Amino acid sequence: MPERYVSVRWPDGQTQKIYSPSTVIEDYFHTGQTLPVADFVARSRAALTVASDRVQAAYGFPCSRAAASIAAINSSAAGFEDGDVTVEGITP
Predict the structure, then answer these.
(1) Where in the sequence is the domain holding 23, given as residue range(s)?
(2) InterPro entries under this entry (predicted)?
(3) 35-53 burial, b if ≥16 CB within 10 A, otherwise e?
(4) Of 7, 11, 16, 73, which is most buried by a Cβ count within 10 Å?
């Protein structure tokens, strides 16, 4: 599957690289996009669930790395009640 990495900047300036096993992530995010933290988390969860479902359809099991990405996003987001996340880039 054509994997993608999404680079984001959190409200405190920290950056994070998020793995997606599918290009479906590009349907949810684009470079330069700025989203409130809660919206970013919800979209990430939706996109990575769809991506993992595609892996399951193709290979018979869900993508554990997509699940790890969701967990990492939730962990990073836990420190913010407000603020925006900026999508800095999407790369193969």
Answers:
(1) 4-91
(2) CHP04042_MSMEG0570 (IPR023846)
(3) bebeebbebbeebbbbbbe
(4) 73
Give the three-state DSSP class for 31.
Answer: coil
Q: Which letter does DSSP use for residue 30 in this model?
A: -
Please say if the pLDDT value at position 43 is more than 80.
Answer: yes
- Round the average pLDDT of the chain to a whole number and report it: 97
Domains held by the chain: number: 1
Closest residue by Cα to residue 21 from 64, 85, 73: 64
**Strand order across the beta sheet in which 84-91 lies:** 15-20, 4-9, 84-91, 34-36
pTM, two decimal places? 0.94
Show Cβ contacts of residue 17 under 8 Å, excluding neighbours closer than 6 positions: 5, 6, 7
* β-bridge partners, 38: none
Q: What does the DSSP assignment read for 35-49?
A: EEHHHHHHHHHHHHH
